Amino acid sequence: MKADNCIFCKIAAGEIPSKTIYEDEDFRAILDLGPVTKGHALILPKSHAANLFELPEDVASKVMVLAKKLGAQMKENLKADGLNLLQNNGEAAGQTVLHFHLHLIPRYENDGQHIMGNPKEATQEELAEIQKIIIG
Ligand code: 5GP
Ligand code: ZN
User: Of 55, 95, 128, 134, which shows the fewest CB atoms inside 10 Å?
Assistant: First the structure.
């Protein structure tokens, strides 16, 4: 189902042109308009889900299988040295378009990007406390 005024619904449906690199009945994969590296792409489900929490389980399963195939093809054909998968949920996490999308980011030696910047050190006690909170 499409959502009104959702730009990625329109792109996924082909109503707004994009540089498509893959399409099937469930997904369209496109080149990102603001690439962080050469070949930065997005997998868009054709049915609207705002984020991971709204994504149906069958779509969630299929998107990872597609990321594996397409990621391998991109790495090979772009002669990339690595690949990051990135998926933002919520403004605090950097999500700017509220239609689920999975970033495929080819990586090159010395490309200058820092996908997971600013790590902190944690003690075993701190990790144990967070472990308890998450398990619930
Ligand atoms: P987010 O920050 O929500 O995870 O990622 C949104 C991504 O979509 C950004 O990397 C941005 O460059 C890209 N983007 C936003 N609007 C468009 C568009 O109209 N076309 C394409 N191809 N990419 C877009
Ligand atoms: Zn949408």
Answer: 134
pTM of the model: 0.97
Q: Which residue from 81, 33, 20 is spatially nearest to 12, judged by alpha carbons?
A: 20
Distance, in Å, from the CA atom of 64 to the CA atom of 48, rounded to the nearest integer, reads 17
Query: From atom 24 of ligand 1, which residue's Cα is the shortest distance away?
Result: 33
pLDDT digits (tens, 9 = 90+) for 21-35: 999 999 999 999 999
Query: What atom of ligand 1 comes closest to residue 87's alpha carbon?
Result: 4
Average pLDDT, the chain: 97
C-alpha torsion sign, points 70, 74, 94, 129: positive
Instruction: Outline where DSSP puts E strands in the chain.
Output: 20-23, 27-31, 41-45, 82-86, 102-107
The b-or-e profile of 24-40 (16+ CB within 10 A means b, else e) is eebbbbbebeeebbebb
Q: Could you list the active site residues?
A: 101
Per residue in 31-65, pLDDT tens?
999 999 999 999 999 999 999 999 999 999 999 99
CA of 32 to the centre of ligand 1 (A): 6
